[in-house]
Design brief:
The complex is a heterodimer of chains A (336) and B (358). By secondary structure, chain A is an alpha/beta fold. Chain A has 11 helices and 7 strands. The N and C termini of chain A lie far apart (62 Å). Chain B folds into 2 domains: 192 residues, Thiamin diphosphate (ThDP)-binding fold, Pyr/PP domains (Rossmann fold); 132 residues, Rossmann fold, CATH 3.40.50.920. Helix content of chain B is 36%, strand content 16%. Classes of the chains: A alpha/beta (336), B alpha/beta (358).
Amino acid sequence: MEERSLKKSKFRLEPQLLVQIHNHMVQARVLEERLIRMYKQSDGYFWIGGPGEEAFNVSLGLQVKKGQGLDYDYLHLHYRSGAILSAMGLHPLGALRQMKNTATDPYSGGRNFSNHFSKREWNVVPISSTIETQYSTAIGSAIAQRRKGGTGITIVNGGDAGTAEGDFASCLIWSSRPGAELPLLIIVTNNQWGISTPAATQHGDKKISDRGQAFGIRSQTINGNDVEEAYLSIQEAMQYVRTERKPFLLEARVSRLYGHSSATGCNFVTDEEDSLALFESQLKAAGIMSQKEISESKEKLNAEMLEMSQRVKQEPLPDASTIYDFTYSKQKGRYW
Amino acid sequence: MATMVQAIRMALHYGEAHLGLKDVFGEDVGPPLGGVFTATQGLKTSWNSPLDERGIIGAAIGLGLAGSRCVAEIQFCDYIYNTIDLLKLAGMQSWSSLGDWNLPMTVMTPVGSGIRGSIYHSHSFDATMTHIPGWKIVMPSNALDAYGLMLACLKEPNPTMYLKPKALMRVRSQERIPGEPPLTPEGEKQLKEMIDAPLGNRTQWSPRWPEGLTDYTVEIGVAQTVRQGEHVTVVSYGRTLPLCAQAADLLKGEGISVEVIDLRTLWPYDWNHVSESIRKTKRVIYVNEDTEVTNFGEHLIRRTVEDEELFYSLEARPRLLAGEFIPGIGLADPLEMASVPQLPRIVEIIRQVVQERA
């Protein structure tokens, strides 16, 4: 790791942006660790999230064209996408509320697991626990955006295990129909695990991105743990999709630092690369941030997160009488 | 005198011309075929998709989430089963996001027996579909309703499932769809010339849609009494509905007065309408052709017997006549006839229920 840090000490990105990326990465990591702690303190039934993917996800979130409607990017994400939304400016309080399944949870009102965001104001469609359906639903918003034109695109992401499902093939086929190509950035964050099953025992393909080539889709595999490689690759892929209005398949190799979920213990693993630690060593080597600044940043965010989590614990759970609410649009109470 | 399939086509045309319908798509939905039952011929917004049901439903969800109204077709409901989790996903978009999102999308799919469709072109889907919350589900039994219910679906902010009884696709309406040519043989011919694609080369063909098609809408959740009666209520929908009406007409000669209700919407269904009729006749039979175990009619029987006042007013056991609980519909005529309700069985069960002693 040391050798690698020195090699990468000359950044191509501006220091100001690097510090910004670091801040978002820390916030996303501290939030995930707070969510895990809440789970372990019985302040939530289940944790699942994306610690380990911050380098890639923050780099993505910062480049999203954020807004509502076809002129902006549509996001069909999965449950390891918290850092994308953190970088887009999502306040962590909502995630803490969802963890505690309070009535104040802004994404599902206490109905869904942690990291299952939904935010129409930013075109973030409801995240589902299914690991593949987003690759099918992304087709639709991309069709609408192809018709609309402009620079808004659809972004879909999921894990490597989910690419075994047919929806991933659907996404490749539908996005590359001759003469009807879709402005769709197809992302696979490949952590090389499917819960407890190593990808290498199930997938014969060396690179998931190779599958894109069969459809004439421009494809790339990158090291998603490297901030600069991630940021610049995403920038290039996005630029291609925005301007050419064609799909791009981007596979990012990432780490999974706390296992699959709370179901597998959610303890820190030491045998996978930590993109945050790596980035910090690079920032220090380049003289962009000092250890003192890094530590202070973490302490400050930790304290804020702790205070917010304590506040959330006092908030009410949803009322049982609301179970039927919103089964249909704008509907309150039981329909029949 | 439009057929049901012509009515659907005209409704979709009205939708793309006036209701913001932007995509009608599915397998063979676009030119040159315009759908295997021709329901989408000549439409401006119709297009062919890959033969991929999950992609079709996924695309429809994504279009709906992007605020772009669409009608997606699954060519036969027999092939919709590999999309069940996507249908479930569609049904929960509003609920799981606490109303942040809504999903204006329609899926239409031909259902049921009646065309000698064998094992994989004869399934019903109403029992399965009514198990999936968050959708509104309609099933017309005549061309006029087919038009009006499609328009209702195209105005809905929620996902709608439009079940097309394939046995009735070529049946002509007894009622005029507002705007269509007159209900005469000449009018029938005229409509065919205007909107049915010719056989052979269609590359130069384009439809001439009837001017004056209207916003005629059948409200979702409203049933219709198609035969007034006093002795028994028969509730049905889709292919079996005209058979029930026919049975009522036959039994009139025996002095049996049958009230027949076309449910039209399976969810949310018009329980007030149904229960009022049962209060009057004190006897009820539910008829549909889906397999009988965990059948939607069983749910309606539950509603019937759980309503204390209604239950104690009954003068006969509530009954269900449905399809046999077998994996498919066999191709040979005796097999299909024995697998799903036909007129003689409907007549017979009505007689039984009316004759049952209180």
